[in-house]
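Re: that chain you flagged

S.,

Sorry for the slow reply, it's been a week of failed gels. I finally had a moment to sit down with the sequence you sent. For the record, here it is as I used it:
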Amino acid sequence: MAAKGPLKGIRDWAIHRLVANYWSLPLVAVVAAPLVGALVLWIDWAVAGRWLYEHGITLLVAGDTAQDLAVAIVGINAAFLTLYWSVTLIVLTLATGNLGVRLVDRWLDKGLVRLSMAGLTFCLVFSIIVLSRLDPESSVAELPHFALAGMFALELVNICMLGVAIHDLGRTMFVDRSIAHLGTEAGNVAIPIVAADPYAGEWSCTLAAKRGGYVEGIDLSTIKEELAIETGAVRFCAAPGQHVLEGEPLVRIETVRGDADRLLKFIPIGEFRSSVESTVYQVRLLVEVAARALSPGINDFYSAMACADQLAVAISGHAGTWVDEGKVAGWERDPRFELPGQDFRGLFGGPLKAFRQAAADYPSVSIRMIENYARVCRLMGEQGCPPGLLHYLRRCGEELRDHAIANAEQECDRTDIADAFRRFDQPAL
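Prediction finished late last night. Pasting the structure tokens below so you have them in one place:
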């Protein structure tokens, strides 16, 4: 799941709520299966069944045998569906209990799981439809050979798909896979920005939040089309992922014409944080997984170190989002749109502090993250990134070093932590 940026408007928010779940696609399958079953039975009755019988392409020798086969397939499909639902719930319960409930939001988005559930549901309903049209006292010539052959073929596909789906669920428990995907996605710049001078004049219009919750996205392209050129500067006061209270400012506009409240429908607000917020959610989720892995009940510091590595991946992909002091992040396509909180500091400032607080009691994790800061600085320095960003990352390393040394109980750990920070001044190997 590559990062596609935050949601764009209320319509996208509603579509995401309808699609990113485990029930919508199976519901479509339940509705479609009777229609497909009726169509297949009609084709069978019209031409296909007679053609198969006349050419000797049949699976069965008697009506009661056909009914027994259909009953067996219905039972197998019901068992498969029950098994898959049970395994899915068990896997999600174990995985989220260990390393964070918010990973569920990502797994709900997995197409293979939803497709598997829809396929199993479709096959079960389709086989029931065919079974309902079978007469055990019918002659072999009167049997729906085409429908029975289709049901048998679907069962073979079902068995293969179940094996693939169970394997995928088993891989879900391997949390390093999710950590790696999070790092890759977080490294993609969802909203390209440039440094701009902040507007210093008076705002003629301020749009306030109509409800409290988390900003899930801002449809900048549509808002640009809605606003006239004469609008002037526009400041989006709350970035995706930020919590707002009812009545807090969302948008400030230098000059506005017409009904400005229409713009609020392009800034969806949800009740809880979710993956649709893109980079800011992914970075925070990496820190959350690391912090949970370091909790006494789990104590999985290697997963925390994997999160530290993926944070380095995400940081290295966001050199272009750095904005110096005194400047404000502006949308690359229209710098009049000010996006405070969507620059590097807005995306990484809070999460990196939270990571420091969680890792300070674990010398091995602190050392790994300090070394990652040094590696990223060295790489970015070679690529000519802004000096302000290099200074910021070095300061993050210093704060983590000081915190970890203060919490370390052994002198050897304090020495190792100090040695890790010296990597900032060592040349590349």
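What I noticed first: The mean pLDDT is 83.

Talk soon,
D.
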